[in-house]
Amino acid sequence: MKVLLDTNIFLHRETNRIVHEDIGQLFLWLDKLRYEKILHPLTINEINKYQGVEVLRSLNVKLQAYTVLQTSAPLHADVVNNIVPLDRNENDKNDTLLINEVFCERVDLLITEDKNIHKKANLLSISDKVYTIDSFLSKVLIENPTLVDYKVLSVKKTLFGMIDFQDPIFNSFREDYPGFDKWFNGKSEEPAYVAFYKKRIGAFLYVKVEGKDESYSDIEPVFQPKKRLKIGTLKVAFNGVGLGERLLKIVFDNALQQKVDEIYVTIFHKHPGHDLLIRLLEDFGFKHWGIKNSSAGQELVYLRNFSRNSDRTNPKATFPFLSKDSPIYFVCIYPEYHTELFPDSILRTESPMNFIEDEPHRNVICKSYISHAVNRNIQTGDILIFYRTGGVHKGVITTLAIVDSVKDNLQNFDQLRRACRGKTVLTDEKLKTFWDYKPTYRPFVVNLLYAYSFPKRINLAKLIELGIIPDVNNIPRGFGRLSTENLNLIIQYTQTDESIIGD
Q1: Alpha helices, DSSP H, located in 189-272
Q2: What is the pLDDT of residues 49-60, one digit of tens each?
Q3: Overall pTM > 0.85
Q4: Chain-centre distance of CA 489, in angstroms?
Q5: With left for phi above 0 and alpha for psi between -120 and 50, is residue 478 left, alpha or beta?
Q6: How far is CA 355 from CA 200, 339, 358, in A?
C-alpha cells in the first residue's frame, strides 16, 4: 500500500514543533501495516526553501526514511476540467498535483491536513482515499482491532481533584487558556467524566448547568435567557474506538436529566482535532451560532436546541427525542449480543468487567442490527424496543432506539461489512456466516441510534399481563409492530422519563 504524505504531514513529524499530538501514532500505524511512505517532489522543493544550514541538513537526512516519487502523473482530463479552473495561486496548483497522483492511482492513499485538498477530493469523488491524521487513525483502528495494544476502560464519573491535571491530554487547553491550571484546581470538588488507558487519560468531559440568569455578554449574538448545559471541556486522545460519541451520549443524558432548553460549546478552531469534533457535533444537530470573545481570543460557539422537537427524517439532529407519530417495533436480541451492543443496558446478573468499553460498537451512539426478517419496511425515524431473550421470567425489554438508516439489497459480503463497520458486535467471521446463512435471502442492516436504557425492566410475564405480548407462543419475530398504547404502557411501567417523547 502506497501512502502519499503531504508536506504538512512530513513537517509535523520531522520538525521539533509538535503540531498534532497523534503524529507519532500515525507513523506507528504506517510502520505496523507496512505501508510505503511516499513523498512528492514538490515536498522536496518546499524543504529546500528552509532557512538555516543545520535545519536543512537535518531534514534531508530524515528524507532517507521516505520514498520520493521520481515522476509525476500527467494531469487527468477530469482533474483538468473539474479542479484546475479552481486554482488561484501556486499553492492551489501544487495541491492539484498531489490529488492528481491519487486520482491516477499512482498511489493508494493521501494523508493531509489541508482542507482545500479534501474539498478537491470530494469534487472528484475520491474522499475515501484522502484522509486527515484523525480519520486515518479511526479507519485503521476499526479495521485492525487485533493490533491495538491497549484497552480503553469504561468512561467513569469522578472528581477533578482525583485527576492528574498534568496529563498530556490537557496540554492544548493549557496553551489556549491562560490560567488553566488555576481553573482546574478550582474545580477540585466538581464532577467530570474520564476514560483511562493505563495511567493516561484517553478521554475527558466536563459539563455544567447554567440558569436563566447566566450572563452571556461575551457571546455574539447574545443568548436569550434559557436553562442550558455547557460542554465546558470535551477531548478524546485515543481515536478509533468511538469515545467521541460515547462522551456525546453522556452530554445528552445529562441534558435530558437536567431538563435544559439548549446545549452549547465554545471551540478554538486552531487544532487539527477540532475539525473532527465539529463534524461530530454538526451530525447531532449542533449549529454554528456565533463567536465568544475572551482574554484567550475568539472562539466559535455551537448551539443545540434541546426542546422536545423531533425530526423523523433526520433523527440525529433531534436525538434522543422520539417522534410520537413514528411506527414502533418490538425487536428480539440474543443475550450473547445484547450487552455487547448496549453496555448501558447491562443486567444486574452480569459483570461490568466483562464489557470493558474498548470496542467501537460499545461506545458509539449509531449501532448496526443485522437481520433476515421478512418485514423490511423499517424506515428512518421508526422506534425500536429491544427485548433480551431468556424466557418468561428472564426475558426482558431493556433498550429504546431510533432507526437512523436501513441498508437493504446488499449485493455482496463486502457491502455488508462496510455498511456496519465499527457498529456491529459481529466479527468478520460471524458476519460472513450470517451472510451465507440464506444465500437466496440475504440479510439487511438497520443502523440505529441508541437512545435510552429503561430504568426498570419488564419481563415477558409482565408484558403478557399488560397485553403488550399476546402469550408466550406469540412473541414477535423480526420486527413486530407495537401500538402507541403499548409504548405508553412501556413508558409507564419502566419508569421512563416521558420527556423523551418529542412533540
Answers
A1: 243-258
A2: 765 677 677 777
A3: no
A4: 33
A5: left
A6: 20, 8, 8
